[in-house]
Amino acid sequence: MKKRRKALSAAAAVLLMGSMLGACGSTSSDMTTLEVDDLSIIQHIVEPADYAEDKADLESFITESVDQYNQEAGGEYITLDSCSLDSESVRVQMTYASYVEYAAFNQMPCFLGTLTDAAAQGYDLNINLKDKNGEEVNGQILLSSDPTFRVLIIQEPVQIKTDTRIQYVSDGVEITGSKTAVISGSGTEPASVYEAETTETLNYIVIK
Question: Which residues are bridge partners to 95 per DSSP?
Fold first, then answer.
């Protein structure tokens, strides 16, 4: 009981260790998913039930964490949409107004915007990207040819759902549909309950 409480009491940034299932070969129904559109990010967290003692305890913790963040940020930037707990899994849905809130709340690298904006923020676009057929292109060439391509950059093993077609992805990302992709995990668990699993490098999903 104490160990589970410790996991839930870790910083809201690693809420439920939301990325741990990404390395386990999970299907779309039992893998944490990020759903993105032009601005916002919807996080569908899925975790084993033993990370929470009961629904009330879990929901109270998340609500307090979200309220504290919003109060400090001076606006309603994050919302808790739903929270459910059964004998097998915990499922939580949260909405973030932008990638800025997602990155800050989860203490994870995250960017969502145009290639131009990504370059301006210092992200390295000199990387090899591939389309669904395996054809490769350099990110800098994409930037030069059409800087309005949007890109999601993240360092977590999760499933991705986008509002527009996925054009290219970096190594470690598999395109599973016209608007879905899966980021592979490292295969190793975090060193402690205070850390969520991250991938070894940043992952790029280019959409348009």
Answer: 42, 79
Q: How many domains does the chain have?
A: 1
More confident residue, 23 or 110: 110
Q: How many other β-carbons are positioned within 10 Å of the β-carbon of residue 115? A: 23
Which amino acid appears at position 141 of this protein?
I
CA distances from 8 to 57, 61, 114 (A): 9, 8, 35
pTM: 0.83
Looking at residue 77, the DSSP 8-state letter turns out to be -
Q: Which of 8, 11, 19, 2 is nearest to 196 (CA)?
A: 19
Q: For position 174, what pLDDT does the model report? A: 97
CA-wise closest residue to 19 among 6, 35, 32, 36: 32
- Pair 61, 94: CB distance under 8 Å: no
